Amino acid sequence: MQSLMLGLLAALLWGLHDFTVRRISAVADSAALYLVVLGVGAVLLIPLDFGSGNWEGVTSGIVAFSALAGLVYAISVYALFRAFTIGPVRLVAPICGAYPLFSIGIAIARGQPASAVIWLASLAVLGGITAIAQGESGAESGSRRAAIGWSILAAAGFAISFAMLHAAAQSAADIHVALIARFAGFAGMLVWVITRGINVRPALAIWPTLLFMGVLDVGGMIAVTMAGNYTRPEFAAVASSCFSLVTILLAWRLLGEKLTRAQGMGAVMVFAGIVTLGLAAVR
Fold first, then answer.
1. 255 burial class (0-12, 13-18, 19+ CB within 10 angstroms)?
2. pTM greater than 0.70
3. Residue 190 dihedral angles phi and psi, to the nearest 5°
4. pLDDT, tens digit, for every residue of 48-75?
C-alpha cells in the first residue's frame, strides 16, 4: 500500500508540474526549461542529502547505477516533451502513459508474481488515461511516426529508470540515489543544450516558475524512488501514470477546458484501477 500511495503522490506532483509546463511552453525551448528545472531540483536536494547521513551503501557501483538511472529519466522527460511537440495529445498521451505495463513486465522478469487482477487493474488505469486523452486537442503538425517513436521511448525510459531507482534505493538511502540521479540528468541535459546551441536566457527570465516546477519534479522523483523500500514498488510506477489525469483535471478546472462524458468515465476507470491495485497490495 505504501508504494501505491507514493505513486499517487508522484502523480499529483508531476500532474501539477506538467500543467505548469503547458502554461510556459512558448517561453523557451523545452530542453532549456527542463535544464533549469533539473538544476533547481539538484540544488534543493543538496541540504536534504548531506543532512541525512547514512552513506554506508553509497558505493562506486551505486553511484554509477544511479547516475545512469538519472540520465535515462532525463532522456524520458525530453522524449515526452518532443512527442507532445510533434503529435497531438490524443495520440501521444496514451502511449506515454503505458509505461506501467513496462514496469509490471520488468517486475515479472525479476521474479515478482502478477495475477490477472493486477494486469486488469493496470489495464484499467491505462484505459482510463486513454479515454481522457481522446478528448484532448493538440497540434496536428509533424510526423505521426516520429511522435509514436518519441512516445514509446518516453514510456520505456520511465519504466526502466523507475526500476533502476527502486533497485538502487534497496542498497543505499533513497535521498542519496535521487541526488546522484538528478545531477547526472542535469549534466546530460547540459551537454545536450550546449551541443545544440539552445538559448537558455528566456528560461532564466521565469526562474520563479521554474523553481516551483523543480520542487514538484524532484518531489515526484523522490516519491517513486522511496517506493523501492517497500513491497511491490512497481505499483508506484502504475499509480504515478495518473499524472496526465491530474494535468487534464487542472486544465478543466482552472483553464476552463471541457471535460467530456467519455473523459469522466475514463477518470472513473483510473480510480477503479488504483483502488483495485491497493486491495491487491495489502493481500
1. exposed
2. yes
3. -65, -45
4. 777 767 777 789 999 999 999 999 999 9
Which alpha helices (DSSP H) does the chain contain, by range? Answer: 2-24, 30-50, 60-86, 89-96, 99-109, 116-134, 144-169, 174-196, 201-204, 207-226, 234-240, 243-254, 261-281
Q: For the range 188-191, what are the long-range contacts, defined as Cβ-Cβ under 8 Å and sequence gap of 24 or more?
A: 188/70, 188/71, 188/74, 188/75, 189/31, 189/34, 189/35, 189/38, 189/74, 189/78, 190/35
> In degrees rounded to 5, what are phi and psi of residue 107?
-65, -40
Letter string b/e over residues 264-282, b meaning 16 or more CB atoms within 10 A of that residue's CB: eebbebbeebbebbbebbe
191's CB contacts (< 8 A; 6+ apart) are: none
Which grid cell sits at 89? 495529445
How is residue 186 written as a grid cell? 542535469
Sign of CA dihedral 239, 80, 264, 131: negative
- Tens digits of residue pLDDT in 137-158: 544 545 777 888 888 899 899 8
Q: Hey, what amino acid is at 1?
A: M
Task: Measure the CA–CA gap between 140 and 151, rounded to whole angstroms.
Answer: 15
Measured N-to-C along each axis, helices 243-254 and 116-134 cross at an angle, to the nearest 10 degrees, of 30
Residue 224 — very low, low, confident or very high, per pLDDT cuts 50/70/90?
A: confident
Count of beta carbons in the 10 Å neighbourhood of residue 42? 23
Q: Which letter, b or e, does each residue of 148-162 get, where b requires 16 or more Cβ atoms within 10 Å of its Cβ?
A: bbbbbbbbbbbbbbb
